[in-house]
Amino acid sequence: MNLSRNLSGITVNQRVSDGYINATALATAHKQATGKRKDVANWLENKRTQETLQHLSCVTSIPVTALYQVIQGGIPENQGTWLHPKLSTRFAIWLSDDFGFEVENWVEQWMTTGKNPIAQTPQPVPEPEILLPTEQELAYMRSRAWEKSEMMGLPVSTEKVKQRTGYRRAIDIVRSLAQQSNQTL
Questions:
Q1: What residue numbers bound the domain in which 70 lies?
Q2: Is the domain of 86 the same as that of 161?
Q3: Does the CA dihedral 115-117-120-126 come out positive or negative?
Q4: Count H helices, E strands: the chain?
Q5: Which of 39, 92, 150, 184 has the maximum number of C-beta atoms within 10 A of its C-beta?
Q6: pLDDT digits (tens, 9 = 90+) for 94-114
Q7: Does 154 lie in the same domain as 113?
Q8: What is the secondary structure of 31-42 as a DSSP string?
Q9: DSSP label at 131?
Q10: Are residues 114 and 154 in the same domain?
């Protein structure tokens, strides 16, 4: 299934399944709008485009040869050079800023409106795992709180440190004790 968009009187399709956009149709629409011919093949041969293809391939783990697809024969609306959504935006900017903004909006709509299969499947949010300290870790926190209170010259008994530590971090207890240093603990 394709999303059909009209640009300068030319139908430009975007595949719902993967977001690829028909760059051949984009180039035709550009020629219709400006009278200037710019070919997808010329853009793909560009050194900067080759660098972009390599980088996008590394980032997405999609082989360079799969980031664009040339389809000849078959259903006419499926023919042409189809570009990955991120490449489609760059190609459209190469054609013109106006085309670039338009295609950028198409890709954004595809990503956010449920026309994108990735957006249709909600990703479960894992519940955070709550880890309580072990008795050994609690003993260590208590001893660190005791050491800190001694270093700060606070009058704190071992029993008081044990009562106040619970499951809180030792540094929090020391800060609390420092704030209460004028009070008898």
A1: 2-120
A2: no
A3: negative
A4: 10, 5
A5: 92
A6: 999 999 899 998 888 888 876
A7: no
A8: HHHHS----HHH
A9: -
A10: no
The DSSP code sequence of 106-128 is HHHHHHHSS-SHHHHSPPPPPPP
What pLDDT, on the 0 to 100 scale, is given for residue 146? 66
- Quote the number of domains for the chain: 2
pLDDT surpasses 60 at 12: yes
Share of residues in the chain with pLDDT > 70 (%): 67
If asked whether residues 93 and 13 sit together in one domain, one would say yes
CA distance 175 to 179: 6
Q: CB–CB of 67/53 below 8 Å?
A: yes
The predicted pLDDT at position 123 comes to 57
| Distance in angstroms (rounded) separating the CA atoms of residues 47 and 50 | 5
pTM: 0.60
Q: Which tens digit of pLDDT belongs to each residue from 172-184?
A: 655 666 666 655 4
Cα 83 to its chain centre, rounded Å, is 20
Walk across the sheet containing 10-15 and list its strands.
2-7, 10-15, 21-22, 80-83, 68-71
